[in-house]
Write a structure and sequence with these properties.
single chain, Growth Hormone, Chain: A, 79% helix, globular
Length: 401
């Protein structure tokens, strides 16, 4: 690509980053869930349910939103996503029951997140060749990881000053305004030659060999990636939802929402680092390294009973969890091609949605039944070991006949 085209790609990349900073509103639920327990006297399980539904709806929406992005382009899909997200948050401000909160935040708002998130990552990736796709993916998805860095303290301050209902309304208006403005910068590039693979990477599918969604579902690689995504994401999702409550339970730290901020910073760094690392050493090697580090961390989490140890555990968890979001879209692009990346990655991303349902509710159920989170940590660690074993079975699919 020429210099002007490359500059255009960088502008789109940072606009996509800004949009994902808003789409990461999902990760502020740890603070909101704690407020629902303390202020509205919900159970831990009930307070986790809107997030659980949100993760599932978000992931399912990715499939259809990815298809819409491939067909109509990123701008209209992202604008509609911003309106849905903001509208869902505003409606949550008028919700007082679990059912209505599930409908507004868990369904309406999360459809918006899925629409926006599914559009911006493929859009930015398409402007760069294969040697930079990991880095570009890392930059774009780091927005979601960084979102709680500012969203968590702002949400916490708003909750103290205005209460739960008004906090939702304020966040919703902000989301609509910012997403619409940044969406104006988005566009897909003109048709270009297929990117070249670097020695450490699987050769990407050529233009004449891009897999359709139906062809992807006939490959064993699709199912391996789906299961690996679900297993590898469970630990991070469990912690994101429960860290403030974990801090209070294990270290009597009532300001534990700062752990979400810390985890989010390193979540973003993990997305950047994971993408860049996989560009150098290959996707599968990077996956094995990340999964094993996270497994050890989860087995040790039950022993993190002081503030410094919880900070350390949150740092490691954030780095490993963040890296997952760079590794899977780039692997999907290299295995199945760029043309239908939106819908193909959307299908694989439903593995994350399954983890969002299972991980968040698993920890809440364990805590309500046993009074501690220990068995949840152990199960998450076992899942990561299984994911590491599955990586050794993963190879690029054969070219289509």
């Amino acid at each position: 690509m020429n210099k002007s085209t490359n500059n255009r790609g960088w502008i789109i990349t940072f606009a996509a980053l800004g949009i994902n900073l808003i789409m990461g509103a999902l990760y502020s639920w740890g603070v909101i869930g704690k407020a629902l327990v303390s202020d509205w006297h919900w159970t831990n399980t009930d307070a986790s349910l809107p997030f659980t539904v949100s993760a599932a709806v978000f992931a399912i929406t990715m499939i259809f939103a990815g298809r819409a992005q491939d067909k109509f382009g990123p701008r209209p899909v992202t604008i509609f996503g911003g309106i849905m997200l903001g509208g869902g948050l505003i409606l949550s401000g008028f919700s007082t029951s679990l059912i209505s909160m599930i409908l507004t935040f868990g369904i309406i708002g999360s459809i918006g997140i899925g629409l926006g998130y599914s559009s911006v990552t493929p859009c930015a990736m398409k402007w760069f060749d294969s040697s930079k796709k990991g880095l570009i993916t890392g930059i774009v998805v780091s927005g979601v990881g960084l979102s709680p860095v500012y969203m968590t303290p702002i949400t916490s301050s708003l909750l103290k000053a205005y209460g739960i209902s008004n906090t939702f309304i304020i966040l919703g208006v902000f989301a609509i305004a910012v997403v619409i403005v940044l969406s104006m910068f988005l566009s897909n590039p003109p048709e270009d030659s297929a990117p070249k693979a670097t020695p450490n990477q699987a050769a990407p599918a050529s233009k004449g060999n891009d897999f359709t969604w139906s062809e992807v579902t006939k490959t064993p690689q699709f199912y391996l990636l789906w299961v690996m995504y679900a297993l590898a994401s469970t630990a991070g999702l469990m912690l994101i939802v429960h860290l403030p409550k974990i801090a209070e339970a294990q270290a009597q730290w009532k300001a534990g929402f700062w752990l979400i901020v810390i985890l989010s910073i390193f979540n973003a760094l993990g997305r950047l680092g994971g993408g860049a690392l996989s560009d150098k050493m290959g996707r599968t090697r990077a996956m094995m390294l990340v999964f094993m580090i996270q497994a050890v961390n989860m087995f040790a989490f039950t022993f993190y009973t002081s503030i410094p140890l919880l900070i350390f555990g949150s740092i490691v968890a954030g780095l490993a969890y963040g890296a997952v979001f760079s590794l899977f879209p780039t692997t999907t692009a290299e295995f199945f091609g760029m043309k239908n990346l939106g819908v193909n990655y959307g299908m694989i991303f439903t593995g994350w949605g399954f983890a969002g349902v299972f991980g968040g509710m698993l920890a809440a159920f364990v805590k309500d039944k046993t009074g501690v989170y220990d068995y949840g940590y152990i199960m998450a660690g076992i899942f990561l070991i299984i994911a590491t074993v599955l990586v050794s079975m993963l190879k690029a699919p054969k070219a289509r006949a």
